[in-house]
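Z., the sequence and structure:
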Amino acid sequence: MKNKMQGFTLIELMIVVAIVAILAAVAYPSYQESVRKTNRSDGMTTMLDLAQQMERCYTAYGAYNNVNCPTASVTSPEGHYTVSVEAQATTFTITGTPLSASQQKDAKCEKLSITNTGKKTASGSLGDACW
């Protein structure tokens, strides 16, 4: 009687390793891009919140650069962006600069900004499509 050997051959094992490597090579960059896009919303939310505060200040005080209006740089709640405000009497620009290491590698949407007119811009290869 023949003894039947059980287990995997080296070839079968190498095929499985190759398939897993190919899947990982495709999935990991896609995952990282998804994480960057999610982190981008952290900065955008903070910027839109500051824009609303600036509009309330303008309504209350008649100027964006009143001492009661927010002008200090803030860090987004999850710590991915530093958001700063440049305010004059009738205009303001809010800029979001990547702070975390993962967002600093985001070449598609490097810096985000929004103005008092609601114009949203971004530097990077995607440009204004980042918003």
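Residues 10-61 form the longest helix (52 residues). The chain has one domain: 10-130.

Let me know what you think.
H.
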